[in-house]
Amino acid sequence: MASGDLMMGMIFLTLTVVGILGNFCLLSSYLCLDFSGCRLRCTDLIIKHLIVGNCLFLLLRGVPQTMVVLGFRHFISDLGCKLVFYVHRVGRGMSFSSMCLLSVFQAITISPRDSRWAELKVKAPRYTSTCVFLCWILHLLVNIIVPMHVTANRGNNNMTNRKEFGYCFTGDYEKSVHAVNSALLSLPDVLCLGIMPWASGCMVIILYRHKQQFQHLHGNSPSNRSSPESRATTTILLLVSTFVSLYALSFSMHVYLGTSQNPSQFLVHLSALTNLCFSAVSPFILMSRDANVSSLCFVWIRSRTFPRALRNM
What we know:
The protein is mostly helical. It has helices at about 5-35, 40-70, 80-110, 120-140, 175-220, 230-260, 265-290, 290-305, 310; strands at about 150, 160-165, 170.
């Protein structure tokens, strides 16, 4: 194994393991807050499903890709390939949809009571679970076509538009079918990428107007302490900007790899790495911005790091 492949494999392994641990720690923190009786926000349920989507994607995309980079190939059966691709596509789709729902629900939550969204602001918490459930159903149904075009059969050389992932192959027998399937699979992503910037722009405008009103009422020296709604909105804006930036980078590399006749293996691995970044980074952004969750994580880490006897001294 070349030293470059070994280094890339270690990067994949580190990103996957750290991302899974971060998502698990964040999900555990939210569950502990639920059991402790803390007041829940309507966006907390969406964040939990974002974490679940991240975990599915990291486990079933990051782990196999890590094994491929480290030199393990064709280690999975045909049925395993279909299942791995189907589940990681569903997890990726739920990460997209959860980010979209987060931005929309937060924009509704911080909207003024006298705005045109006032009625939605009252009804939104009641429809959170329904929207999340519909997103799961959507991605479970849309991605049914994925297993039809994934195989571990290394002897099938007749597939057109063939793409190798090291452990599986994807391809279609007709270009028209490939175009229709690609359009169908990309439609939810395109809708989310259209809605997220719009909702983020609304949040920025609402925060700016709120700041202007606050300065007008309290003078030119407003308090440095931001409200919980403002902190939550800033967190979601940071998540959305990170997500869109990484997606744009990943999409650009995907287009380049699709048009290149003989792309380097480094660029192939780098493209897969950018796909994993958001799922690995997002839990740490959420933990760093949520005071309740970050304090609970700190207590949990401290309890595991220092023996009880030392803490009682």
